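Hi, here's the filled form for the chain we discussed.

Project: internal
Contact: R.S.
Residues: 96
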Amino acid sequence: SVSSSVWSHIVQIWSSTNGLRLYINDNLVASRVSQATNYTGSAISNLITLANGLNSVTTCNASQVGSYTPYVDDMDEFQVYSRELSADDNYTLYTK
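And the returned structure, exactly as it came back:
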């Protein structure tokens, strides 16, 4: 889990080959391999979908999230990459 009183490094990685992986402080805390061919976050303004369960065969979108909790805290950095990050990439970012 993530505490709001300490700094945490959170990384979500998705690819159609390896599915969805969620890392907190360089520890893999959740993963799911799926047949999903794309990942659509949400049509809702200012909403970022993290750790969705990829329940669908073809997409992962906001309508498939059973419940969600808004993130209400500070965020220091937010980065989006156009490629799948490797475990080594994640570690490099975590130790940076």
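Let me know if anything looks off before we file it.
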